[in-house]
Structures are given as C-alpha cells and as structure tokens.
Amino acid sequence: MNANFQSWLDGQIQTLKDQHLYKVPKILESPAGGRVKMNGKEVVNLSSNNYLGLANHPKVVEAAHKAIDEWGVGAGAVRWIGGTMAVHEELERRLASFKHTEAVLVFTGGFTANAGTIPAVVTDKDVIISDELNHASIIDGVRLSAAKYKKSEGYVYAHKDMEALEKILKNTQSFQKRLIITDGVFSMDGDIAPMPTIVELAEKYDAMVMIDDAHASGVLGKNGAGTTSHFGLYGRVDIQLGTLSKALGVIGGYIAGSALLKDWLINRGRPYLFSTAHPPVVAAALIAALDVMENDPEPMKRLWDNTRWWKNALNEAGFDTMGSETPITPVYVGDEGAAQEMERLLWDEGVYALSIVFPTVARGKARIRTMPSAAHSQEDLEFALQAFKRVRDKMGASGLAVSD
Fold first, then answer.
1. Domain-by-domain residue ranges, the chain?
2. CATH number for the domain running over 75-278
3. Active-site option among 47, 48, 145, 187
4. Backbone dihedral region of 114: left (phi > 0), alpha (psi from -120 to 50 degrees) or beta?
5. How confident is the model at residue 199, as a pLDDT?
6. Catalytic annotation on 246?
7. Directed axis angle between helix 378-395 and helix 298-316, to 10°?
8. Domains 21-54+297-399 and 75-278 share a fold
9. What are the pLDDT digits (tens) for 189-213?
C-alpha cells in the first residue's frame, strides 16, 4: 500500500465527514418492498426506485427461474462477439413496440447508456445544450464527448427556462449539429421537463432532442411508456433513454429511436462494444415485467394513489415538497448537517429515507428524498408520516425548513 495515497484517502474521507457529506450504505436483507429488513431492523423503505413493486413480482420471479433452466446464468461474451441471445433480441423488440419507436438497443445500465450514446452521436463540430439539473450520467456522457458543452461558454440553460433555451439555440446556429438533452423527470426534485416546448423549439431551430426518461419509465404515459407518451410526442424525440432497474425492477438501460441510430450505437457505443451482455435471466425477467405493465393497470394506479396521498399529507403537515409532480417527493431541509440528522432520527423511528446532499444537489439545498411506491400499504405511509412529524418536533423549527 502506498502510504501517501492512503493518507490522502484518509484526509478526503475526514473532510466529507466534517462537511456532513459522508455516506455509508445500509444493507438490505430482504426482498425490495414497502417494508424491508435493513441492518437487522424492519423499516418502512422510502428510498427505493421499485415504483411498481416489480422487483419481486411473482410473474417476474417465475420468468427468471424458467430462464435459468433454459439459458443458464451468463451470456458468455460481449454482444457483438457472440453474447447476443434470442432473449436479448426479443426484449429489444418488446421495448421498441412499448416505446413506439423503430428500434431499441439495451445497455447494461442507464449510466452506461448515456455514457455510450452521447459521445457517439456528436463530434467536435457540434454543441450540446443541457438543463442545469440534468442527471450525473448525462453530465458525464457529455464530458466524454468532443462537442462544446460548458456552462461557462453559455451552453447550459437555467432549469426548465425555455426563454434561455431559445436564446442558446439562436446563438448556436453555426454548429453542424445541436443536441438538446434533458431529463424527463428530474431525479432529485421530482418535476417534469416541459417537453412540448423543448420539442417545438428544437423543430423551429433544427436541433436534435435527447430525453433521459429513467424516472418516467413505468411512471408517466400509457402503461408507463414515459414522457413522450405522456405528452403525445411520438416520433418527435430523436433519442430516448430508459432504465430497466427502476419501475421495471431488474437492471439495465436502453436507447430508443430510429433503426439507423441503433445500427450506429452497435458499432460505436463503447459500453455496448466492450461490456459482456446481460445474463439471459435479466432479459427474461424484463420481458415478464413488461407483460405486467402492459396488461395489469393496478400497480401503476396504486403507485399514483399512494403518491397523491403522500404528497398531500406532507404538504398539509407543513413540509416543503419543492413542487414535485411525480412519486419522487423531496422534503426540503437546506442544511447538510440537519438533513443527515433527520435521516438518522427517521431511522430510529423505523423509516429509511435518505438524505440527499452535495454533490448530488447544490450546497445548502439538502433534502430528504422520499419515494412512495405501489409496494407501500396505506399503513406504511401513515406510519412514515407520523415519524416525520415526530422527527420535526425533536429537531425544532431551526433544524428543518418548512413551507409557509
């Protein structure tokens, strides 16, 4: 071990602790659900992306068992070398139909889908125009590209500011291609991008549109088909990213778009080119999850019933949910130390709700991020609400920001 390196690591970790930014993951000891066992304790889990409860749905689990018997546990190769199985192809056909696009290419994760796609579709003659609150995977994908993209150079617009976006589009007409990238649902605030206006501006100024629908998949649109479905924008968004690890309950990411886009990414999407294919059990489980989403409206209805109840209950109790429009429901705190203290006190009360601090959000914008789901019972949410109230009383008004 290099002593200087270990000393540097020790100092960096201590700085995180001093700034109330240090995190230690808790260990899940039961299937994902509304109530789970973590670190030996039963808690209401409000920090899961398992929106529809599909991570342990009986039909999804059954399909996984059958796939192991039929296909084994590994693909054995990168997809283009020989790791593409019939079940992978079937999943992509099903996703393309679900998204109303010509084609879909599946990646091993949503992060790698962004990291592989963005650099592949732009060059040094192009510019990327981004919402300032875009997800870290978008930011990293953009940084890997050769295009212009920096905020300091005027290519990042204030959150959902369509006047600012149009100004950038007017000022960048000399570039060969212009790519607007936005989250569909913003993962820390829970609000929805103004996609109709973004698409109209892109069409007016001959720009491309890419949307990261990670937190809209399974949540918005017909059967959970996402933001493009939600706003009726079929055929008007060039590149759609979705994840397979949140509402669909398994793992992976995908890019939906034209057949030409899929062909290009097969040849130039580096995470696709250099990552072993998903185990076939993953693809089979995802096909079963799609079957549930397309044929059983109850999980999505339960998700939204729970979401509406939870938001209304928090707002009536005086908590600031930051204008969230989706199941992602932040409870604004502000101070990083107070947010981490609130997380600790909630845990003591039997609720796992994660504090979100810098660098995930801006300094001084810390919050508790809660995620009601179809897996929660009414009793779970009522229990959590009372815990939030008790914790606020313990912390006092100075420790927790509340709405007016």
1. 21-54+297-399, 75-278
2. 3.40.640.10
3. 187
4. alpha
5. 98
6. yes
7. 20
8. no
9. 999 999 999 999 999 999 999 999 9
Active-site residue (options: 99, 135, 160, 215): 215
Q: What is the pLDDT of residues 58-112, one digit of tens each?
A: 999 999 999 999 999 999 999 999 999 999 999 999 999 999 999 999 999 999 9
**What's the fold here for domain 21-54+297-399?**
Aspartate Aminotransferase, domain 1 (3.90.1150)
Q: Which two tokens stand for residue 328?
A: 């992602």
**Length of the chain, in residues:** 404
Catalytic position from the list 148, 230, 246, 311: 246
Residues 6+ apart with CB under 8 A from 130: 138, 139, 142, 149, 155, 156, 157, 180, 181, 182
**145 is an active site residue:** no
Q: 40-49, pLDDT tens digit by residue?
A: 999 999 999 9
Judge contact between 75 and 278, C-beta under 8 A.
Answer: yes
Asked whether the predicted pLDDT for residue 369 surpasses 60, the reply is: yes
Q: Is the whole-model pTM more than 0.70?
A: yes
Q: Are 142 and 291 in contact (CB under 8 A)?
A: no
Q: Order of strands across the sheet with 354-356?
A: 329-334, 366-370, 354-356
